[in-house]
Amino acid sequence: MTEARESAGPQALRAPGTPCWVSLMAHRLTATEEFYGELFGWEFRPGPQQLGPYVRALLDGREVAGMGQLPPENRLPIAWTPYLASDDVDRTAEAVRLCGGTVAVGPLDAAEAGRLAIAADPSGAVFGIWQAPAHLAPAITGVPGTPAWNELITFETESVAKFYASVFGYEREPVVSAGFDYVTLCVDGRPVAGVHGVGHGLPRDRGPYWATYFEVADTAETLRQVRGLGGRIVRPAHDSPHGRVATVADPEGAVFSVVQDPR
């Protein structure tokens, strides 16, 4: 994570390249709803069904995330996927292809939610592209139970950060530190996501992936809840410049991080 995790306003959330949504595809959708509902206080309502059963997670009546159900025969890793805003999904998808990435799904219309595609960068990390209609209310941010940051965990930052800058027009801010390979992606000078190169520290059975951080009120209490709900601790809580952080996995194995704002 970088030093900046400021909540974006409605227009900033739609600025091209800004993470504007996160979604999880799981095999046991009802059980997954129960886990996150208890953990974050989310409620659920049906969402677009173009890719199968799908629900939107709400906090205080505002949308914060989405969850879908994978077909039984689909053995893809269970993972949270960020969606990056676009003014034109079709054009962005073509840019992904031209810059060495792939488009696995779409572009396609998702009812009143807008238009989307699911892609992968040249290293294989999966992300979404979302073109939201102008009338759609932005997702809530900046409170416990909402996404706080998205970070690409990959082999090295230089080539992959260039890919995302070419596709979305990001400004890149490398962290100048010996032995620490990190680039912050910015939109109009505002940090929106990070790219962390970990070299051989990347799990061999996983490959590069996008990691989502969710804000929580109390990291210790959240970890207790995760265990009680059948999840597990991947990395214990530790202090960081951004607050107390821990990495966990839900009962199906989807890994995510939680962060307690130090303010």
From TrEMBL:
What are the alphabetically sorted keywords of the record? Dioxygenase, Oxidoreductase
Specify whether Oxidoreductase is a keyword of the entry.
yes
* InterPro entries attached to this UniProt entry: Anthracycline_SecMetBiosynth, Glyas_Bleomycin-R_OHBP_Dase, Glyoxalase_6, VOC_core
Signal peptide feature range: none
**VOC domain spans which residues?**
18-132, 146-261
Q: Which Pfam families does this UniProt record tie to the protein?
A: Glyoxalase_6 (PF18029)
Q: Which GO molecular function terms does the record list?
A: dioxygenase activity
Q: Which PANTHER family match?
A: CONSERVED PROTEIN (PTHR33993:SF10), GLYOXALASE-RELATED (PTHR33993)
Task: Please give the name of this protein.
Answer: Glyoxalase/bleomycin resistance/extradiol dioxygenase family protein
